[in-house]
Amino acid sequence: MNGKSENSRNNGKCVCHVCLHHCALKEGQYGRCGARKNENGKIVCDIYGRITALAVDPIEKKPLRHFYPGSRILSVGSYGCNLSCPFCQNHEISMAGRSHAGRGEAASESGEAPPESGEAPSDYEEISPEKVALLAEHYREYGNIGVAFTYNEPLVGYEFVRDTARIVRERGMKNVVVTNGSVTLPVLEEILPYVDAMNIDLKGFSEEYYRKLGGDLETVKTFIVRAAQSCHVELTTLIVPGENDSEAEMEEEARWIASVGPDIVLHVTRFFPAYRMEDRNPTRKETVYRLRDVAGKYLKYVYTGNC
After folding, report:
1. pLDDT band, very low/low/confident/very high, at 6 (cuts 50, 70, 90)
2. Which of 96, 169, 260, 265 is placed for a possible disulfide with 234 were both Cys, Cβ 3.0 to 4.6 Å?
């Protein structure tokens, strides 16, 4: 992204154009994601190389079912996220870097950004793109095929993803991105030349539901369409009772996915209580199976998860 698009100004503030929120930030202030800030009049990535999680996982855990099945991949995570999902399984790192007061507030060119925060987790480690690539190579003998950027929302720190993925690709390995798809197309274009596969969270298929999560359905749909043109794409929808569990919504979602590509894989996943939804009941298995069958009327490949 060029400096002009990344650092346009609004009433003396710098506007971040990485995601749909377009946070307008005064000096020293962090965006809604807790990962980007205004530093000396420029929007910078404050989480570059700050790694909170590192593990060699089965590729199916991403989840990816049709991309090198049976292989393993070095999973790398930082902290920060631009959505506010109350069911987040990784909230300890995804929600780090922003205060409770700021979480969930609108932060746009026409509104106020969240209060100054930026409290990073205390247990991150500084790791360079080169070192990540070396680690990936080291684990090749254990079936590792490359690097997956996951655990938090990796694209709020897209610069690290881009730089690392380029080196990983040069070393003959694969790159996977697990993302909510809630970033702008210029950011996607920055990483696409180096990405081999993505799992994209399609949280549901209504604008109302996405607004509850601090997101925008059309942004994600646009992201999915573009990503599917350049790399292998699988989608995941977490079924939350009373939120996105209707057959009508799943039918509309599956019909749209089929219009993008009938071979796109959909994972229909069971919700378990977590974070701010610890008082909810898990999704009934029967509901997940029923919605899988609904999606299967339009898609060739539909899998259930957490069942």
Report:
1. low
2. 265
